[in-house]
Each structure stands twice: as C-alpha cells, then as structure tokens.
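Researcher: Go.
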Amino acid sequence: MSPAEAAQRIADLRTEVARHDELYHRQSAPEIADFDYDRLKAELAALEKQFPAAAAALGADTPTARVGDDRTEGFARVKHRQAMTTLDNTYDEAELREFCARLAKLCGREDLAYSVEPKIDGASISLTYEKGKLTRAVTRGDGEEGDDVTVNVKTIANLPHTLRAPADLTETPVPDLVEIRGEIFLRFAEFARINQAQQEAGLAPYANPRNLASGTLKQLDTADVKARGLEIVVYGLGACAPADLVDSQAAWHAALAQWGLPTLEHRKHVRGIEAVVAAIHTLDGLRATLPYATDGAVVKLDDFELQRLAGYRGEGQSARKLSPRWACAYKFAPERAETRLNAITIQVGRTGVLTPVAELKPVQLAGTTVARATLHNRDEIARKDIRVGDTVQVEKAGEIIPAVIGVNLARRTPECVPYVFPEKCPVCGTAVVQVEGEVAIRCPNADCPAQLTGRLDYVAGRGVLDLESLGGVVAEKLVATGAVREMFDLFALEAEPLGALNLGTAEAPRVLGVKNATKIVEAIARARSHDLGRWILALQIRDVGGATAQDLAAVHGTMERLATSEILPRLARIPKREEEARLANPKARANKGQTEEERAGREERHAALKAELEAEKAWRASLPELARIDFVTAENVMAFFASERGRHTLRRMAELGLAPVAARLASSPVVGALSGQTFVLTGTLPTLSREQATALIEVAGGKVVGSVSKKTSYVVAGEEAGSKLEKAQALGVPVIDEAGLRALVGG
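Model: Structure:
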C-alpha cells in the first residue's frame, strides 16, 4: 500500500469507526457485530502505526486515541471517585499468553494466581454505597464521569439497596464508602419477550440484549425501566474507604457475596497460564447453555499488591485513557456460518404483523442445526439487499435467535433478483398496510385466520387463561373448521364433538380424542374463576403485558371499572400537561421577543401548569401500581374499550356471566360504593370464591370481617350458610346473596 492509499484508507476508517462509536455508545443501536468493529479499529491502529506521517497529516483526532462515551442529554453528570478504565482485548490465544508472560516476568514467578471471569455482555455501571446504603448509580460515561441513572437502577429487582452487615468478626465489614462496578444485562428470555412485543407493535426489533439493556438505562420513565426486567451482576472495585479492605480479587468477590450482592457465576481462581487457557475454554463451552449473553472472559491478576506493581498503560495521561496492565479481555469470536437462502416465507402474527423468515439450506451453528432465521421486516431485507438464492451469513443474534446478518456478494448469481414484499396478506388476501411511524407491515383484517389462531394460542398460555392442550395445532384446526371465530366461542365447546376434531389431514386423519377434549373443556371452565389480571391479559390490548395487567386490575378491581376508568384519562393527560408547561415557559426559545405583558401572562400560566403537574405526579407516585402504568398504555386501554371490539368484549362477558375481580388491590385506601361498610361472608356463593368476593368488597371500599355483630353492615350468604346467618337474623343484620352484593357495588 502506498502512503497515498494508506492516507485514504486511514481517513475512511476514522470516519467509519467514529460513526459506529456514536451508534454503539450513545444510541445503543449498532449496525455491526463487536467482532467486525474490533477488526476495523485494529486495522486503523495498524495503519496509523505503519504510516505515521499519513496519520499525522490527517490530524490527531482519531478513534484510536479516544475512549467510548455513553453520556447523553437529559441526565446529570457525575464524576467517578476512581476512573473506570478500559480493558485491552484480544481474540488471539497467543496474545493472551504474551500478556501472562509479561506479568510473570514483571513479578518474577510463573505460577501467578489469576481470576478468570465470564465477560457479561451488558451495560457497565458504578454503584456507590455509603454506610451500606445505595446512594448513587452512574454509567461508565467517558471513564471520568458518567450519567446519573440512580432512579432507574433502583428499579432492578436483584439489587439490594442496603448491604448486609457481617455476621461475625471473620467476615469483611461494610466500608464507610465504596464504589462497586458491575454490569446490567437482560436474560435471553426477557429479551425475546420484549422483542416479540416490539414486533407485534409494528416496531423494529432490538439488535441484542446488551444494546437494549444500555438503552433502557437511559429511559426517562422509571415505569418503562422496571417493566423490562433488567438484572445486575457486580465484580469490580473502585474507590473504597478504608482503602485496604481486601487484598485480592478472591477476597473481593467473597465480600460482595457476603454483603448480599449478585456476583458472577462460573468465576475461576487459577494459577499459571495453562490453567487460565483451560478456564477460558471451559467458559467458551458453557456460554451456549447460559441464560444471558457472554462475549468473552476477563483475566485479572488476583493479588492487589501485584496489580499495583503492574500499574496502568497510559499513566500520566487523562484518567479516562488508562488501561490496567494486570487485566485483559479475551473475546470469543462469534460463530457464523454461510449457507444458501432457499426461500423467504411470511408469517402472520396475532396482531397482524407480517414477519419475513429465511428458509435456509440446513447448516450447523453453535451446536445446533439451523434451517430458519429471522429477517425482521421489509426494511431489513432492503437494507441488506437479501435475495432468494443468495449465499448468506447466519449468526445467533444475542446467542439465541438465528439471524441473517449479511450476504456474500461474491457468490451472487444473476438469478438472484431483489425480493418483493407481498402487498396482500398471504393467509386471507387482504391488502396490507403500514401505519405511520412503524416499520411493520400489517394485515388489517382482525378476522384473518392466522391472527385468530395466534390469539387463541396466546390465551391458552399458562400465564394467561391456562387452557391445557388448546394451543398450536388444536387452535389452528378450531379456526380452520369454523368452530371458533373469537375467544368467547371457546365457552360453547363440548367434549364429545371437540373430541372428533381432526388434527391431521383428510388422507391421514388424527382425531383429538374425547379424553384430551375433556381436559380442554375443564380448563375452559376453570378459566371462569381466573382473576381480573389474567382476563385483562387475555384481551390482548396493545402494550399490556403480565405485570401491567395485574397493576391495572389492582387499581380498578373489576372489568367494568376498568372500562369506565377515571384513572386512565388522568394518567394520559400528564404528558399533555408537560407539553403545555413547556410551551408556556416564558424562558423557552420560541417565546423570545415577547412583551412584558405577554411574559407576565406566560409566567402566571406556567406557574399554574407546573403546580397542577406536580400535583398530578404526586398522585401518580402515591400508588406504586400507577407508577408502573405508562401514558401510552393508558391511552391504548382507553382506545380498546372505546372501540367496537372492546364494547363487544364487554357484551360477550356479560352474556357468559364472566365477572372476574382483582387478585390483589392497590396499596392505598379505596373510596367506593361500600366505603365504611363491613361485611361477613358465609356459605358457598354461586360464582364467586371467598377470595374473589372479598376482593370485590374491598375494591369498592368495604371491609370483610370474620364475625357478625350489631355493627356489621351486611352478611353475604350462600348455600349451606351456618351459624353466622343465624346470628345475623337474630341481630337484625341485613342478609344479601351474591346478586345483592353485585348490585351494591354497581354490577
């Protein structure tokens, strides 16, 4: 390569790497895999070293001299007490051996002790505990300062806010102050759940769990953060007072576990380079079985005194550019395979989204045979220019979902023509649509057999109505035969005719059988007594997942109250008030040049809106359940019940006598039709269990007690009522049945 060619390549690489840095660190939306990024940056570094004059002529501003920076607008900046350094990384075992050899020479011994830790692929975080209390959580940022995301991090379920005190003098005491470094991540199952909801909503799926975890940390609404099921694991030590609390990595990990913090699984304490290499190979073999993403192993010198002896590369420069000489990351190269794309098929989901699927010539990948892979959506196919007949590269996205990541253009033949996305639903023939702001293409026909099958399969799930054996091919055949045209038709099914359902073909029949049919019918009958949260989930309202459904149930109590909610419109108005307050702010750029009279009017309006907004936010914060229901969800629920589908749902539930109540209630006092009244339950009610009747009373503001007195407002009596009924009659306490109770609470 000539100096001129080198200069051009260096310039191109600097631009490309800088763009990928922005996508990765600030937007959490990378376009290429880490392996490919590392190769680009390594090529740039090698060229800059080989052609220093050409590199210097282009200026000193190069990605190889900078560190990643994840700081974003909207968050307070906080300086780390001790800088978060960057690790040198390698994909080469020979370089790993050189790293260990340098340390052995420096320390004068070969049998050095190392900590070999799995490198969790997540978002780096620094936690500060003072006197054992969690006071701050800060992103890595540029190494010297990061974004304060304390409020969001405190929603993570497996992170204790208080460190556990030592049980005796042999354990490590909780320090006055300590910075604990760790990684925030998503499990594969949670990532798959979120992506499924994302695609069903018509939005682009997230690239991998790491980027989704990083992006979630920067959400401004803590309810959104909590809903995504983030987890954390800790492993690193920053500033500490006292400084000599522990003397090794092994002692540090023991202290973390003793304090009740979530620590690394599969960490190894080994001696010598051969044991290090063996431990890394073990981790590489394990990673396919782990429920979260790992992209390598981190090797650290165990002894803290020897760490201080080794020091840092870049000392004397900015703290953000430091990298420890006593640690390195050995990264696993992603396993990829090339194979032929035989066809592109289209799946239609329960929300009508058309998802393209790559039908591949079967190929071995990460220990499994892959014959199908996701293509995500129409835009992805166009962006990567994927064509039937192409030789494509397949990789496990997030090590769990096979995905086509690119095309080997050198092997493309003239027969490979651009793919044309269908204009009609391949199942029902309805013209497809694309909603503004969505990447998804949808079938708008709610009666599309594929959508109905998907909805039935969903409600049959264990976490929804738990209809044993109803999903899959049974749901498909019920729809195909016309036996079920909507969810509520399930309640008309009878065991004997259902048992005759042919699950096979006319040429090779395979009937369901009365025994299996009876199980399904019994499961449908049990669904009548499921709580309100499950039934809200069964309605499949957009953006309403399991936790949100339970929260909606807890603050409303019954389906009727949810349908006519006064809470949801109030929630949905909060962002509108925020926008009004922003526009009314006299200091806003759009309001420059206003007169004094206009300014005074805006100040008065702005102050009033801010006061109203603060009151509304305080009201929302008063109930944890409300804090977890976001504004978009509130609007979606209201839109559902205002639609013909929602009105039809309420009619059908009333016709079938389905009146579910909440399994738990909101944590603040309820004011309702039964406020201040006490009830006693006795006997067996026709449709309500004792727990459901109690919830129905409590959600309306009433109280259920165990014994009858003159102060009892009502006794609710069912079949085989006993002595409580007799005592109520003797004391003249009103006695009502289940119908009377429902009348008191308004249905």
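Model: The first helix runs from residue 3 to 26.
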